[in-house]
Amino acid sequence: MSTDNVEERLTLLEQKMRRLEKVAGSETRWWERISGAFKGDLIYAEAMKLAHDERQADRGEESAE
């Protein structure tokens, strides 16, 4: 492997690492950025209620066995 090729690959790797550090090093975590995004959304609230009811129904079936 030539020295030029290694240097090019190292440069690309360093660029990718800087991009990753920028994303991973952001002060606000992704879930904190989206927290509250559905506040007051009636469709979202209904979806969460249906999901909750479904989980409860699944638990009921398991405990009946």
Plain-language structure description:
- This protein is mainly α and 65 residues long.
- It has 2 domains: 34 residues; 28 residues.
- It is 77% helix and 0% strand.
- The protein has 3 helices and no strands.
Describe the SSE topology.
Layout lengths: L2 H22 L5 H5 L7 H23 L1
User: What's the number of structural domains?
Assistant: 2
Q: State Rg.
A: 24 Å
Largest sheet: none
Categorize the overall geometry.
elongated
Q: Helicity level, as a percent range?
A: over 70%
**Low-confidence region ranges:** none
The rounded distance between the terminal residues' Cα atoms is 64 Å
H/E series:
HHH
Q: How many helices in DSSP terms?
A: 3
Mean pLDDT over the residues: 86
Instruction: Count every beta strand, where a strand is a DSSP E run of 2 or more residues.
Output: 0
SS-based structural class? mainly alpha
Short recap of the structure:
The chain has 65 residues and is mostly helical. The protein has helices at 3-24, 30-34, 42-64. It has three helices and no strands.
Please name the defining characteristics of this protein:
65 residues, mainly alpha, 2 domains, 77% helix, 0% strand, elongated
